[in-house]
Amino acid sequence: MGDKNTKEIDTLRKKPKNKECMDCHEKGTTYIVTNLGIFVCSRCAGLHRELNHKVKGISMSMFNDKETEFIRKWGNENAAKVWLHGLKKSGFAEPTGKDTYKLKEFMRAVYEQKRFYQKEESSSEGESESEDEKEEPEKAPNKSRDSGSKPVSAVRFKAMR
Known about the structure:
The protein is mainly alpha-helical.
């Protein structure tokens, strides 16, 4: 089970859009957010974990058949079409650089609030996929540890005074 899936994940990782992080566009993806079917860098993997997303390291994890199929169907290119569909029209600025706080807020807007999300439309050839054939990525639960308006470090610092 694991060997064939490992090879497939490696092949999927080599696709142009999967070589760059879905969220910050850094080159070199080392993790997959399995409930979203996206490839991300190590920094963004940590942020996804903070948002309670399911993250696996590519080189140190085994992927089952269901996960591999889900990742094959999504990947960064297809996921961007759905999760970031309305981003350009919104005027919302994608974070640039290494500002982790802005990146995390962007992730919340994308994956928790679904601000730019649009469901995939069925193909124009009259073939619509059943729910089983095109499983949608999960919306992440809004249970992050620091979902308040202040960063955790600010809350801890204030409490220590």
